[in-house]
């Protein structure tokens, strides 16, 4: 079973243990800050000093922090201790910078070390700031505000370019960019990369029978209902073109992709799902094409998209809905055949 299959069985409530706890000062207008530090006394210092200013979350290990990033809104800034057990802050920073959803989050390194070499490493790896412990809270608040404000401004500008205005999902241009990034990353670490193309059937009938306004409303409702399917930072759910969505699953092989595809099919079959409430006997269904690649085996990202698109085209030509799948893993089975 691959990594994604394991994630699919975990319940979000398991995150709320002694290792991760959220501030009660929940304010949508406040910047979100994630603190990663293994020292309980220092975590209390941050909680007491920062919770009045920000919406806070905390983790005592980098793995717990990664779980939180998988399942919670992305923070506007991260406070990261350099000296951590198992994986130090510098290594974790590298991991964050390799992920398209976390690579631009400002990271404020905290350390009792103050030498020029450690500071240079922190900035070379993409750190936004470096603070020597113990921090002056008022100064730290000012630093966080400055970095978080710039981060949100950048995200707003990106949204103008990369967000589909109807569904508010990443658009085809963003999808292509992330697909290339994840292909390169998976090739470097010998991970699998899965792609699902989800085509909504009979939407053009809906447009013809009920008009464009109803068509646009239904498209947006379906997008909103499915948007939580890809929940990890490395996953991407995007609006690609008329009636088609894409779901990119990084570090995910065949079994994990099948789990996600079946979740989507099950969602469409639920009686209270939006497509089953409007049109009586006429059902809007979906066809899902699944393709999996091992980028380390060679090729380029566009080949994965083309393979999935070919499978989808053939299924729709044969009027088959449901899940259809490429019969091999690109870069593995095709390489063995050559």
TrEMBL record:
<dbReference type="InterPro" id="IPR001789">
    <property type="entry name" value="Sig_transdc_resp-reg_receiver"/>
</dbReference>
<dbReference type="InterPro" id="IPR043128">
    <property type="entry name" value="Rev_trsase/Diguanyl_cyclase"/>
</dbReference>
<dbReference type="GO" id="GO:0052621">
    <property type="term" value="F:diguanylate cyclase activity"/>
</dbReference>
<protein>
    <submittedName>
        <fullName>Diguanylate cyclase domain-containing protein</fullName>
        <ecNumber>2.7.7.65</ecNumber>
    </submittedName>
</protein>
<dbReference type="Pfam" id="PF00072">
    <property type="entry name" value="Response_reg"/>
</dbReference>
<feature type="modified residue" description="4-aspartylphosphate">
    <location>
        <position position="81"/>
    </location>
</feature>
<dbReference type="InterPro" id="IPR000160">
    <property type="entry name" value="GGDEF_dom"/>
</dbReference>
<dbReference type="InterPro" id="IPR011006">
    <property type="entry name" value="CheY-like_superfamily"/>
</dbReference>
<keyword id="KW-0548">Nucleotidyltransferase</keyword>
<feature type="domain" description="Response regulatory">
    <location>
        <begin position="32"/>
        <end position="148"/>
    </location>
</feature>
<dbReference type="Pfam" id="PF00990">
    <property type="entry name" value="GGDEF"/>
</dbReference>
<keyword id="KW-0808">Transferase</keyword>
<keyword id="KW-0597">Phosphoprotein</keyword>
<feature type="domain" description="GGDEF">
    <location>
        <begin position="191"/>
        <end position="328"/>
    </location>
</feature>
<dbReference type="InterPro" id="IPR029787">
    <property type="entry name" value="Nucleotide_cyclase"/>
</dbReference>
<dbReference type="InterPro" id="IPR050595">
    <property type="entry name" value="Bact_response_regulator"/>
</dbReference>
């Amino acid at each position: 079973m691959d990594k994604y299959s394991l994630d699919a069985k975990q319940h979000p409530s398991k995150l709320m243990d002694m290792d991760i706890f959220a501030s009660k000062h929940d304010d949508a207008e406040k910047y979100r800050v994630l603190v990663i530090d293994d020292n309980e006394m220092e975590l209390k210092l941050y909680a007491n000093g920062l919770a009045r200013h920000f919406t806070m979350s905390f983790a005592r290990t980098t793995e717990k922090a990664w779980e939180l990033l998988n399942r919670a809104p992305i923070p506007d800034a991260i406070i990261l201790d350099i000296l951590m057990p198992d994986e130090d802050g510098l290594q974790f920073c590298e991991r964050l910078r390799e992920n398209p959803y976390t690579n631009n989050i400002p990271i404020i390194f905290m350390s009792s070390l103050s030498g020029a070499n450690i500071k240079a490493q922190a900035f070379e790896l993409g750190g936004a700031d470096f603070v020597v412990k113990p921090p002056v809270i008022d100064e730290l608040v000012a630093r966080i505000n400055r970095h978080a404000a710039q981060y949100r401004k950048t995200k707003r500008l990106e949204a103008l370019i990369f967000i589909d205005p109807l569904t508010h999902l990443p658009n085809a241009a963003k999808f292509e960019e992330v697909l290339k990034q994840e292909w390169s990353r998976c090739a470097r670490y010998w991970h699998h990369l899965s792609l699902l193309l989800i085509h909504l059937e009979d939407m053009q009938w809906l447009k013809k029978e009920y008009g464009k306004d109803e068509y646009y409303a239904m498209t947006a409702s379906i997008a909103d209902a499915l948007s939580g399917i890809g929940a990890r930072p490395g996953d991407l759910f995007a609006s690609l073109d008329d009636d088609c969505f894409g779901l990119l699953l990084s570090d995910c092989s065949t079994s994990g992709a099948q789990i996600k595809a079946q979740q989507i099919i099950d969602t469409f079959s639920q009686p209270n799902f939006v497509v089953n409430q409007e049109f009586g006997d006429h059902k809007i269904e979906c066809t899902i094409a699944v393709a999996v690649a091992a980028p380390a085996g060679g090729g380029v990202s566009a080949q994965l998209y083309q393979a999935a698109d070919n499978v989808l085209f053939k299924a729709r030509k044969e009027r088959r809905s449901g899940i259809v799948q490429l019969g091999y893993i690109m870069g593995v089975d095709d390489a063995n055949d050559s």
